[in-house]
Amino acid sequence: MARFDVYPNPGSHAATTPYLLDVQSDLLDGLDSRMVIPLRSLQHFPKVNLSTRLTPKLTVQGEEFLLETPKMGSVPRRVLKSPVTSLAGDRTLITAALDFLFHGY
């Protein structure tokens, strides 16, 4: 498993939130859980004014998704199967969203 890998969402909300983004440090790869952020389909998201800094749009397989940073949570490592892609190229946006959530800047 690698930080910024994107996995199919095995949960009941997969129709509206098809992916989970792994944001946990690779140094903690031995833990049996991973911190993930849901990637929600824009077509299933209400049109509200959200901070693009907190919830940036990211592209997975040619489709845009909203990074729902405030809904970050832990999942058992075993539910994350094969990654579909990596968003390591977007690490600056993702890290900025995490910094904004935890530090307010």
Notes on the structure:
By secondary structure, this protein is α+β, with helices and mostly antiparallel strands. It has a single domain (5-103), classed as SH3 type barrels, CATH 2.30.30.110. Helices cover 12% and strands 30% of the residues. Strand 4 and strand 5 (63-67) form a beta hairpin. The mean pLDDT is 93.
Compact description:
The chain is an alpha+beta fold and 105 residues long. The protein has one helix and seven strands; from the N terminus they run βββββββα.
What is this structure's SSE topology?
Layout: E1 5-8, E2 19-22, E3 33-41, E4 57-60, E5 63-67, E6 73-76, E7 85-86, H1 91-103
Antiparallel strand pairs: 1-2, 1-7, 2-3, 3-5, 3-6, 4-5
By CATH, the architecture is named: Roll
Number of domains: 1
> What is the overall shape?
globular
Major pleated sheet? 7 strands, antiparallel
Q: CATH top level?
A: Mainly Beta
Category by helix and strand content: alpha+beta
- Note the beta-strand portion: 25-35%
Computed over alpha carbons, the radius of gyration is 13 Å
Helix amount: 10-25%
- Termini separation comes to 28 Å
Question: Number of helical segments?
Answer: 1
Quantity of strands, as a count: 7
Mean pLDDT level? 93
Listing every helix as H and every strand as E from the N terminus to the C terminus, the arrangement reads: EEEEEEEH
Low-confidence stretches: none
CATH fold type: SH3 type barrels
